[in-house]
Predict the structure.
Amino acid sequence: MSNSKLYKGSLTTIILKLLNENDKMYGYEITQKVKELTKGELKITEGALYPALHKLEAEGLLDVEVAKVDNRLRKYYKLTETGTKETVNKLEELAEYIKTMQALVNPKLA
Amino acid sequence: MKLTKEDIQFIDNYLDNSDVIYADIRMEMVDHVASDIESRMESGDMRGFYYVFKDYMVENKAQLLNDNKQFLKSADKKIGKTFLKELKNPITPLLFLALCIGFYVLYQNSSLETFRACLSIVPLIGLTGFILTYVVYQGVKDNKRFSVVERLAFPFLAFYQLPNLFLIRTRELNETSDLFWTIGGASLALTLMLVLVIISVKLFMSYESQFKNIT
């Protein structure tokens, strides 16, 4: 992930937000979607993505479904009810964080 | 351009031979690698699967093997979290209390030898539960190895040793404190092992639910 230290803390929020907008997604699809949305600025490595997905799954925020696609098994992730609620909280937290950082870095825009 | 069944099998075998031994971890890696190779081929790399695969592995093999370790850590964390969640279940302290009462009643109504003999089989009860669930699951899943299922063995082995710490005190049982520690310890060990059996079944069932659409 580029600028990894700055983005690292927001990885779960990014995943939750994407899953909130899509019914279900698989790992590679998430990495490509992020790359596309950020025009290549943010590249999530599988080393960062999958542990985050598994952590969210263990916390009960994501549900998993395995399907056979293109001659192989594919693991899809989707939000649980708790995950949907947590997404709202996480996005609010992130918005608050951005606002605070803006007040610090560029007070005129805050 | 989609990869053929043989290409997918090749990736699966390659990862299996690279010590990515668990089917659930490999499944996700195979899909990731295959998706990336397909994307490269669709972007104009026309050299054929094996050349693109070789390039991919030169660039990413070290990362993939490191990911395997991360996946295993995730499996351990999943077990830990599920276990803690189950411990918070109100039934768990009730189970502990019921076992304490059961052992006390047994102590009151049987000889010391019988009481000791019963306590000595405590570790085996939990272990038998795990072995039975494990064997049944492996039978259902065609002997494929699954990370969470196999790594459940570590906490079972740890808890298997736990009763020994308390059973040492059964040698004399002269004082009330010895009886308290023996019954409390055996009940605690058995409770923890039964909770492990419960979460084993739950985790096995969650695998089943994930794979329910696969024929």
Summary: Residues 25 and 92 of chain A are 23 Å apart (CA to CA). Chain A has one domain: 4-105. The mean pLDDT of chain A is 87.
